[in-house]
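Note to self: the last two entries modelled the partners one at a time, which told us nothing about the interface. This time every component goes in together.
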Amino acid sequence: MPEKKWENVVRAGLFLVIISFIGWAYVAGSFRFIADNPDELIYLLGQHLKLVGLSSFLAVLVAVPLGIFITRPRFKKFDWIVINFANVGQTVPSLAVLALVMSYLGLGYKTAVFALWFYSLLPILRNTIAGIESVNPSVIDAGKGMGMKPSQILWKLELPNASYAILAGIRTSTVINIGTAALAFLIGGGGLGDFIFTGISLYDTGIMLAGAVPVTMLAITIDFLLGKLEKRIIPKGLHWESD
Amino acid sequence: MIQFNNVTKVYQSGDKEVKAVNRVNLSVEKGEICVLIGPSGCGKTTLLRMVNRMIEATEGLIEVNGENIQSLDSIQLRRSIGYVIQQTGLFPNMTIEQNVSVVPRLLGWDRVKIQHRYNELMDMMGLDPDEYRNRYPWELSGGQQQRIGVARALAADPPVMLMDEPFGALDPVIREHLQNEFLRIQKTVKKTILFVSHDIDEAIRLGDAIAIFNAGELMQYGTPNEILSNPRNEFVSQFVGSDRTLKRLNLLTVDDLLQRVAAVRQKKQKSYKEACGGSTVRRDSDLRNALSVLLSSPTGAAAVVDEEGNAFGNITIADFERLVEVHPAQLKSIVQ
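The predicted structure of the combined assembly is written out below.
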């Protein structure tokens, strides 16, 4: 299969980029900096994970039910309002969202979580709606015609068949969130952004990359783990889509 | 078994009212296949979907098994009626066994009974139960998928089945194969079936009765033979086609013709095969095929043989005169 071959080429290319990124960090002295301050890295990494974990978790908790709610037959007429809102919301730069939220809630950890939560909502919401709406209407029609209740149609047909899109939305949103969370430092939220912005203000590439490299590795690891989770959760009958 | 009394469905389109189904009266006997047919938008699917209340009738009364469907809970009603649609509507997230067992599980059957029923249905469909048990719909061909769709609808053994163009998306060879299998299965299960189709040949082949619709109104309702021999109006005769007399020949066998001829022709011949120049037709073949044999026979006659190949009678083109309104000359010109 030529597609498979190209996929491997692209993968090898990306791998090289990451390796050279790490190599650059090594040359710039990031690892020496990390070796000198291991406790600080671990502290900031923990803070970063907490920011991302909490905001992404809350985003899933709100966006998925909201997506389900808006696709119920009764509210379907209004789904375009939500979709448009989500689309426009996504175009606002993440930094601007942080700044806007800060001007209302002030500085601090809670503000950061709120801003990251808000920014994570939209990809999940959009994918949940798109996923449910892309379930073949004949599947729903057959379920209804065979005497399934609306709740059975939702749990046995709509959600399993939309799971690929919903989980893809959660995965994308979380990975983006890991990057965006580096900005939380700017509004006093902590996280690995601390190293990055310190490095920038000191013109010290080593310190900057001591923050950037862990963020990158974190994003890659989480993406990989969520990918594994996807494979477990998505029903086998739909796997041909992802294989 | 299924009774429509003055059933009307009105859709509001802007400030105009559109009557998708207009005062339809129809009654389908127990164990019969009634084919609803007509051009697209004639209301046939709407009428079908009103039976399991996927669409609610605006006016009129629908009775299934003597009960007004409005008096029944719609969920319970749907579980008691088999439902097959054109795009199969198989659930991609479920295995074949899970798909077939959906309604029994909704009805709360126990595991053993469900598994037993699954095996039974797959055998009936001519598919190996174990081979397909853990496979998924996307792994199956269109014809296999539609068979699973029919098995799924039969799962809880409902007395009534609704089938909305179940074979419409299949290629002609597979379609004919499935139609024949469907008739074979119907012989044993004897369901009361409402069957939507847009293909008059399918309707003639499958239907015990045919209801022809146009613009929401029932144009004619009768057996295939009645409709082909006596179309009630211009629309029906156009819809069944100018070759309706030929189509009618599909419904009759050589035996039927012999019985009609026997009344006027008593003389016995010793050797039918020689007299007919070697052309033979089987007694159970349909008259359309028989006619084709006659037209290519040098003597214009053919010997009728039974299942063992023994000749016991003969037919000629002229015998077709016995079939009302079909003149031999007319037949010849149509076939050529």
